[in-house]
Amino acid sequence: MRSSSEAAHPAVRGACVAAAVLTLVGCASGGGEDSGTTDLPPRTSAAETGAFVGECGSLTDAEVYERSGMSGLTPVSRNGIKCRWEADGGARYVMFTWYRGSPIDRERSVAQGIGHEVHDLEIAGHRGFSSQNEGFCEVALATGGDFVHWLVRYGGGVTPSDPCAAPTALVEITVEKAR
Predict the structure, then answer these.
(1) Superkingdom of this entry's organism (predicted)?
(2) CB of 77 within 8 A of CB of 85?
């Protein structure tokens, strides 16, 4: 049978359980110099962040339509870090993503790991890469501790002779407009 104080104060009982769990976790983690654990690398500091590229890489819808060379695009999502324009129900699209505090080499490794053809590139002193596979090309460019990424999916079996020309042009404009 419970005492009236246990039944009357479930919040106190929950706080005691939480304190016990934290104590056990603290004890299990060691904390001594010879614990064999390593500290996590520090997060990217504000000083390491890249240039401010603005919503959609600071490009207007008209600039995206013109540089992508795709007809029938319509904006379907837009926010501070990702924008997407689609045509033909999403079979063809252009997408911009701004990766804040994220290593570009991880994105490159993913592209290589799934079998895309990857090439180094440099634009306005910024290193990056292009990655392509049948029907699309993506271009990523580092700006300090960040990187910007443009992807063009051509769809419909119609791919230009240089599928990376459009995303490269989009990245170039983004870098030109960066602050």
Answers:
(1) Bacteria
(2) no
Reference 132, options 145, 115, 149, 146; nearest CA is: 115
The answer to whether 82 and 93 are in contact (CB under 8 A) is: no
Residues 92-118 have a mean pLDDT of 94
Which residues lie below 8 Å from residue 18, measured CB to CB, with a gap of 6+? none
Q: Other CB atoms closer than 10 Å to residue 37's CB: what's the count? A: 10
Number of Cα atoms under 13 Å in the Cβ half of residue 125: 4
Query: In terms of C-beta distances under 8 Å and separation of at least 24 residues, what long-range contacts does 45-51 make, across chains too?
Result: 48/101, 48/144, 48/145, 49/100, 49/101, 49/144, 49/145, 49/146, 50/100, 50/142, 50/143, 50/144, 50/145, 50/146, 50/147, 50/178, 51/143, 51/144, 51/146, 51/175, 51/178, 51/179
**What tens digit of pLDDT does each residue of 67-95 get?**
999 989 999 999 989 999 999 999 999 99
- Could you give all domains of the chain from N- to C-terminal order, each with its CATH number? 1-37 (no CATH), 47-177 (3.40.1000)
- The alpha-helical segments, DSSP class H, found in the chain are 4-8, 10-28, 61-68, 104-113, 165-177
